[in-house]
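User: Can you predict the 3D structure for this chain?
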Amino acid sequence: MSVFTDETRERAREIIARYPADRSRSALLPLLHLVQAEEGYVSPAGVTFCAEVLGLNKAQVGAVATFYTMYKRKPTGDFLVSVCTNTMCNVLGGQEVYDTLSEHLGVGHDETTADGTITLEHAECLAACDYGPVMTVNYDFFDGVDASTAVGVVDELRAGGRPMPTRGARLCTLKEMAVQLAGFADEREGAVADGGPGEPTLRGLRLAQEHGVSVPGFDPNTPIRSKAEADKAAAEAKAKAEAAKPAPVEASAAPVKGGDGASAPTGAAGVGEPAKPAEATGPAKPADASGSTTRDVKAPDDKSPQVRTAETRQPDAGTAVPDAPGTKVPTDGTGTAPEAGDARSAEAAGVAANAPAGDGKPAGDEAGAQERNLTEAKAGTDADGAGPADANETGAQK
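Assistant: Here is the predicted structure, written as structure tokens:
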């Protein structure tokens, strides 16, 4: 079992520090890239290392490492050559490119050359249909390849060269790429300055410039506001909108003369008096509209979704949202709502009564229940002479 270097352990602590203390499990993906950067693949030792530093078990780490194809489970070459063989690239010759490389290198899918330089794989899609057929070397693109150019690229790699990708930065080894995927910058001088955009990508930009197409009011230099700044701006906009509302028109105490000199009824819309705007009466309050006796409690933004849901569903009348859809205010028989309670206590009681499943067994997988079912099934077989299939069916029904 390999021992990871002090540098890797220090970087692991730096990765974990990026996340809140109670969310350290989120660091698992970059940590897997980190151990792959040292060993060239995610070894059993790497799985153990990630489990130990995050306080997980190896099964949890292994489930993630085996799900994503970018985590390799066996030693991989310095350069991972991926050829797209999905529909678009295949129509354009992607399968021919892969078959030619496989024969030329003497390896198949997910196999490595004897010198440890090249690992070949066919990819279902590399998300570059407008550049097809494409292949990548350590996830950097080589566009519009054919069998001849693909062989030229791998031969240059095996000879120690670093061919320049069509798009993207200068090539690096798979281990160096894994360091970057773990969240650390490429420290090679000028490495990220190489490369450039592809012509199909620039085509859309040129068409937009030719026809004057742009997003109204878009400023690429506009910074992204924090939540506090956004809330402040929203509050200011709301206050400004409230201030811009017209003042309610008060009813005049003096009689209004009609067109024939007669007095119009006080408060009525006469000839010389405009009708009252709707704001004069004000919107109806929820309690007025529904007759609810529950006070209106506004859920603040810092409440958890579980608490807010519990309040909306009215575990008690005092903290519930009044007149929520599908709810009814409980009364004690006299038409009076009960005293205010605490929805959090109701939520806590529900959590206590439904303990989460541990890592060892899923919820409901109790040995006692299994033994009871087996005993009942056996008893049924002994009583009526049913065969094993009938006994299983009887146990399932019970």
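The first strand starts at residue 79 and ends at 84. Strands lie at 79-84, 111-112, 118-123, 135-137, 140-142, 256-257, 263-264.
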